[in-house]
């Protein structure tokens, strides 16, 4: 039997960049201790009071089909969080609750793109992006951002890539680079979207993790709310990655269509997960700061460690739970560096190349182990880089 092209070509062929991750997992399974700095998951688990609320909700019977758009209380809570953070008037009719931000990314592109339409995204990028765009039969087109610009996109590069495009996907704070787009960058992006009549899909799942600068949601820029679809999630802000609860914010008519789409795809998110998400959101921004605090601390540790050497460059880590390290001085590709580091020191980092051509010669370090182990690992990364540079 033939499978659809949509499925068989989803990852675009070739390596999907997860080789180092898979090798590290294999070493761990075979009993070799590995310092794991690959994936973006907190080293804490979901807080006990959230789980207790989830349990109470399930025990009280919220285990049947939930409302497909999301419960009124969760949609209201997400709308209130959005309005408080961005100042843009937002009601439950602007909100679709989805099984995680990933599903919201898919729904947003289903809304914006017909088969064959070009869907723009920025390189380096979160690993699932091109596959998600192919998943709606759009044609992904990457736009390079540059290490020398600290990976802030240039509006002129986006404008030059617009032919045939209907959407542009951006992500700030950014995975993998840690870049937070400046006001100028965002207004430049908004200008291109207006000029070329693009949907702007803004992945803001790291909006609670900003160390430097200010997160600006482009939906708040003049005249942008009508063409902007914002992806959000409980995963990163509330350490609820496994709960699979996220959202899409957009104009009411788009959300109304996407509720129909959700009826035919996900059929919603479990009620007890939604109730626990309301409980978590009601804890307010202080709780979100508490979840983000370890990454803020480790980013300060990284600044201190990296200041003591000249071999490894640090892309300004303004947000999110990652550091992008420039290892080009070693003469190694990110891939070779990550493989050699794993082989010799049993430290697993992601090769920059896993996130696109623009991150070649870099590695991404997730700040997801305890502070002292993190500091030790970074020191080892630096001394390893120095040894390879001297060689
Ligand atoms: N966007 C970005 C940039 C991410 O890094 C992730 C998860 N790593 C997601 C979206 C999806 O997150 P989730 O589906 O857990 O909300």
- What is the ordering of alpha helices and beta strands? HHEHHEHEHEHEHEEHEHHHEEHEEEH
Multimerization state: single chain
Strand content: 5-15%
Number of contiguous helices: 14
**Broad shape:** globular
Strand order of the largest sheet: 2-8-7-6-5-3-4
Structural class: alpha/beta
Q: What is the CATH homology-level superfamily of the largest domain?
A: Type I PLP-dependent aspartate aminotransferase-like (Major domain)
Helical content (DSSP H or I, runs of 4+): 40-55%
The CA-CA distance between the termini, in Å, is: 53 Å
- Enter the CATH topology name of the largest domain: Aspartate Aminotransferase, domain 2
| Low-pLDDT runs | none
Q: Provide the list of bound ligands, each named once.
A: 4'-deoxy-4'-aminopyridoxal-5'-phosphate
Mean pLDDT: 96
So, CATH architecture of the largest domain?
3-Layer(aba) Sandwich
How many beta-strand runs?
A: 13
Overview of this protein structure:
This protein is α/β, with parallel strands linked by helices. It folds into two domains: 5-45 and 286-385, Aspartate Aminotransferase, domain 1 (Alpha-Beta Complex); 64-284, Aspartate Aminotransferase, domain 2 (3-Layer(aba) Sandwich). Helix content is 42%, strand content 14%. It has 14 helices and 13 strands. It has helices spanning 5-8, 19-29, 48-59, 72-86, 100-112, 129-135, 155-160, 183-195, 234-237, 252-263, 271-282, 285-307, 334-345, 371-390; strands at residues 35-36, 95-98, 118-123, 139-144, 165-171, 199-203, 228-233, 246-249, 313-314, 322-326, 347-348, 350-351, 362-366. Strands 2-8-7-6-5-3-4 form a seven-stranded mixed β-sheet, sandwiched between helices. Strands 9-10-13-12 form a four-stranded antiparallel β-sheet, covered by helices on one side. The chain has a two-stranded parallel sheet with strand order 1-11. Strand 9 and strand 10 (322-326) form a beta hairpin. Helix 3 runs antiparallel to helix 11 and helix 5 crosses helix 6 (129-135). It is globular and about 60 Å long. The protein starts with a helix and ends with a helix. The structure holds 4'-deoxy-4'-aminopyridoxal-5'-phosphate (PMP).
